[in-house]
Design a protein that fits this description.
424 residues, elongated, 16 strands, 3-stranded antiparallel beta sheet, RNA-binding
Length: 424
Amino acid sequence: MLDIRLIREQADFVKDRLATRGVDEDVAKIDEVLRVDAERRKAETALQQLNADRKRLSREIGGKRSRGESSEELETSVREIGDQIALLNEEATATEEQQKELLLAIPNLPHAAAPIGKDPSENPVVRSWGEKPDLPEPVLDHAALGTRLKLFDLERAAKLSGSGFICFTGAGAKLERALIHFMLDLHTREHGYLEMSPPFLVRRDCMIGTTQLPKFEEDMYGLEENQLFLAPTAEVPVTNFHREEILPASELPKKFVAYTPCFRREAGSAGRETRGIIRVHQFDKVEMVKITAPENSYAELESLTANAERVLQLLELPYRVIELCTGDLGFGSARTYDIEVWSPGQNAYLEVSSCSNFEDFQARRMNLRFKDTEGKNRFCHTLNGSGLALPRVFAALIETGQQPDGSIAIPEKLQPYFGAPEIR
RNA sequence: GGUGAGGUGGCUGAGUGGUCGAAAGCAGCGCUUUGCUAAAGCGCCGUACUCCAAAAGGGUACCGAGGGUUCGAAUCCCUCCCUCACCGCCA
């Protein structure tokens, strides 16, 4: 959520920044929110005046009564004021809600350093790591490998839950577990994150806090008449962990890591990347979340991204880091790096992590603040990044590890977790 | 699922219809005294919104949330949420 004061005081700046996202309707919302804001304040000011009158007169009534004097005239006029208040109160509440609704629908301002562009084709490559492997022909993709070695069973998973679900089996299930364990250990032991194991079902307010709602409700799985939602990412429960709190500055930055399954409807994605396990309705992910002071959030974004990259380096999987241009930036993000692993089977890079700084956009929605050294309450900055999303790492790993004899080599660092040097 | 108790400021805790944004204590900040510490005394010490060009200074709202009763609600009534205790059920 943007700061209404910033919009009021620097409307042109806000519009210019918003325009870099390339969505005219969003820019138009600024004028709308300004109009509603003026209305709201007008109603509120009038209401406050009436409340002040009522308060003063009511006290007078109290005084008269205790002295045994008649207060009937006063009571009549206060009753009239009460009627006016009821009327005006409705107006004030309505405009306030309207304003809130509008503010919740306006995306974050891209950071000044975010590259300007209209779609993913304009995302610059920031850096690359590793050499693409020279694999013996024919190169099999993960779906073929998985079927041949019985690592997962998509047909039978469909019997359970429909298309878009994975059932890992045997060595595949073990590999999945090994990867999760490996990632959690890396981030807790070497990168200083606190491990969390949060609920997978979260309340509506939390989904609003991290910007999944209200705009993207059709992509979410809801329960109990949509008062609870299956979290599409651990970002939701973990970032909201401290919602509505004022944290001591000395406790920042907070660094959390959590493994959770992630649930996504992927509405409108039918037919896209449907082969194998690249795009599914439920997948495992290890997620990192940071809550920081504003001054440090961009330095923390760099280290967060480096922490995610480290996973691929240790797994010896080539990858590249791209930065999202303004037109491709997520709704709440000011700046985002995507990490894409090389998939020999797809002959393409696959997104396995998205590391974003939301600045105070989420914090404002969840009222997450900290007390600075001067004792002032200020909004925190929040960040998150996958570290990493499992199925695509799984796919890249088995594709990259395929051997001429049909077996799959397990990266050295993962072997202690997997318990064997290869799958065959 | 059932029954009971309860949700007040950073914390503890008083307040059961009027001048209560809320006693008192603790913690915190400032000053005085002091060689330092301690102790003592005095003062300050919530948040949000809003008015004013701004500062100074006003105003309104907030005692879990939302509604209601009333001239007036932290206080009375209703609904919901949450916490705790016990019972039932259960991985």
